Hints:
By secondary structure, the protein is of the alpha+beta class. It contains 14 helices and 13 strands. The strands form 3 sheets. A 6-stranded mixed β-sheet has the order 3-13-12-10-11-9.
Amino acid sequence: MSVIAPQFVSQLPPDPGADRRRRLVLWCVTVLSVLGLAGAVFLAVAAVSTGGIAGCGGKGSLFDCSRVLHSRWAKWLSIPVGFPAALVYFGILATSLITNLAASDRVRAGAWSILVVLAVSAAGSGVWFIALQLFVIERFCLYCMAVHSCSIVIGVGVAMAWRRPLAPGVLLVLAGGVGVAVLAVGQVLVTDDEATHVLVDIDPDGEKRVVITSGDLDRKLFDENLPSTRMVDAPKDGAQTTISAPNDRPDTRMVSMLNDVVQIDAAARPVLGSVDAEYVIVELFDYTCHHCRELHELLTEAKKRYGDQLAIVVVVVPVNPSCNRLVRGLHPDHKHACEIARMGMAVWRVSPEKYEQFHEYTMGAIESRTLGQARKRAVELIGADALKREKDDPNTNRMIEQNVSVYKSCGGGPIPKLLLPEKLMLGIPKTPEDLFEVLEEQLGIEPVAE
């Protein structure tokens, strides 16, 4: 049985010039396959991570990589499409090299057959995904567009390298088209029922416990008299380690989360809502975290639904190794996370009633506020002198250390996290209704009467 492929030597009269051009085109295909492979792996990893992608806009922007990469169209049968794409690019890389370098005509012909199928699949998939971004998602991922462009150019390159009449290769083209059809049909017909959030249990006997309370510490004696924040294993008798927070406010409201693994005095941290609310939850977030702003938007809807019944204790956890010992490596998006976190804590320490304005300004924005924007807003709220004093106070840094301890007790990893009395919510619900379902099931809260 013969292989359906162009015979580079025997089928047509020798044409050294054309052969050189063909080989040059195939080398270009090889280079593009390397770029596509790197891009596909990068996007596959980004699709399963919670961080944003530098230089690709943010929520509400036309160029919103996160929205594209976390849409249902970024997966095929629950697998991020970047992973099978990487296999296709690897196949193109290998077959283009064999087609150019193999000594045997038969081996080169076989490699060419596979290359044609993969190139058609890649080019067709590139057109499919560009159409999805344009007409369905209505947002664009610049990195994705670059990878799809590689696919299309590869397809054009393989067509340019075709030497024999097209008719004998129709079956190869059709085979590549079948690959595109399988991709498209799978994405259209397979319902995306996969949850984007999950509730997990934290074993109170197996995790380290932390308690944050409102202490009556003397600010002047703070550095000398307060031990360093630390986490210890929960004693067998159930006693808990107390970490005092530098807050001299007389009112207290202890809330227990994750089956007592975490206990926080609502007066010891900023609260969105009333400390006396019937239902209290705790949010771990970062001012520079894109997904945290998505959860903030959902929580804002929850506060509208439940009114004064619900309060949210906000615990800032900067995703920056300079103030978070659990973070390894620094993403450019989080370069100023520690500094903006200190500003937020400073605003709260000086004027708790103005903190929510700072929080909404930073978290309600489409994209992360810059360091300059955050500083300007903080100065407007509490003044430059108060901001500098509180931001540089050791108590502020100590409070962030304590926040990191809470983050550690929740297992570290991606944020945001929502702490509930018995469960830990990871990920972002798709809709406000999904979040309402979690809160009403876990808290027993009901909407306020309209």
